Amino acid sequence: MTATEAARTFRELFGQEPSGVWSAPGRVNLIGEHTDYNGGLALPIALPQRTYAAMRLRDDGLLRMSSAHAGDAVSEVSLSDVRPGHPTGWTAYVAGVAWALEQAGHRVPGADIVVVSDVPVGAGLSSSAALECSVMAAFDRLLHIGMLGQPAGRARAAHLCQLAENDIAGAPTGGMDQAASLRTTRSHALLLDSRSGAVRQVPFEPERHGLALLVVDTRAEHALVDGQYAERRATCEHAAEALGVATLREVPMDGLDEALDRLDDERARARVRHVVTEIERVVRCVAALEDDDFDTVGELFTESHASLRDDYEVSCVELDLVVDTALGCGALGARMTGAGFGGSAIALVRADEIETVSASVERAFADSGLKAPASFAVTAGGPAARDL
Ligand code: ADP
Ligand code: MG
Fold it and tell me: FRET label pair with 303: which of 56, 98, 123, 164, CA 20 to 30 Å apart?
């Protein structure tokens, strides 16, 4: 899927040239899971897979939207009708961006939009943020807002995309996905501090060390995912309240035992232990990457997985199977990534073992009677940008 394809479909559907094509990447989080809504640290990279938005402004207050993923039909929404709960479905992510821009004082006159994407949808690789951020990049340019021209503006754009997802699409996610899509740089991971909103670029080029980052989309579908996410957030918020802190970020690693002693619910203790140790693992992972110490990076991945599986309880059979199989094949480390209960896992493997690990994971899934997963190696891609 490319920018050219988005432009061609635009011409076919709308009978004229788009004003341009903009794209934004999906992301995979290296480490720092379920930390963003706790004011903590995360370390995503942008994927090479991207969502492309071809756009042309209209002046009649309508958004007309089409996506190959949603079957190429054109959906129409009046901008004045956009509100929490309307529209529903995929167009909420697009209309939400226009709505968020209007909330921020930018008048959106209407637009025709065609979306094509090679980001796997619903795989925990943030196709939703890729969609929002590609549309944001297009509006930013066509409305002459200029946010994407400087880092502070990109932070603002990421925040508006998060509002679109939270308020219009109704998904109560933290801000990591949008930051990854708008604020990363190629060949780097993004150290995101969700307390301050600050970011730092951390070199991430395992390919220069004979290594590769393998992503495995488990294609697992588990019900109740949204409820579980909201429940974890609520537990963390209540624990922070009980400890008298704004967020769990305020609990330092060396104050963890004392904090745990002050909580009387066993489950809340386990959740807090995950969050606090996970933030510490991000700090150690950044140091290891800066030292080119990929053995330690791998160990931290595996520790993170154990914490998410045992303390945060957001893993599932499929994710555990990827991790155990990859480690059994000699991966340096492996973990689930994203919110959990399905979605994707990552493994840090030797480049010449990509095929072996992928094949072993595929066999393990078949032996367990599970739907075939999709595996692919990725490098750290670039942020949202104009293509055509
Ligand atoms: P993830 O972000 O992990 O892929 P989400 O559930 O957050 O999963 O977002 C997936 C939703 O985003 C889809 O159900 C769809 O509504 C929307 N979406 C993402 N990419 C596209 C696309 N290319 N075309 C249409 N809708 C998309
Ligand atoms: Mg998403």
Answer: 123
pLDDT computed for residue 222 by the predictor: 73
Nearest to 51 by CA among 70, 92, 23: 23
CATH of the domain at 93: 3.30.230.10
The answer to whether position 350 is within a domain reads yes
Give Cβ neighbours of residue 363 (< 8 Å, ≥ 6 apart): none
Mutate to test the pocket of ligand 1, among 2, 21, 115, 121 (most ligand atoms within 8 A of CB): 121
Q: How many domains does the chain have?
A: 2
Q: What is the pLDDT of residues 206-264, one digit of tens each?
A: 999 999 999 999 999 876 567 898 999 999 999 999 999 999 999 999 999 999 999 99
Residues 6+ apart with CB under 8 A from 342: 124, 218, 219, 220, 221, 222, 225, 316, 318, 319
CATH no. for residue 320?
A: 3.30.70.890
Please give the pLDDT value at position 50.
98
Catalytic residue among 177, 193, 217, 387: 177
Q: How far is the CA of 128 from the centre of ligand 2 (A)?
A: 4
Q: Is residue 384 part of a domain?
A: no
Q: What is the pTM of this model?
A: 0.97
- Helix/strand/coil for 85: coil
Residue 385, in any domain of the structure: no
Per-residue pLDDT tens digits for 104-132 = 999 999 999 999 999 999 999 999 999 99
Whether 267 and 170 share a structural domain: no
At residue 190, the pLDDT reads 98
Q: Are residues 188 and 241 in the same domain?
A: no
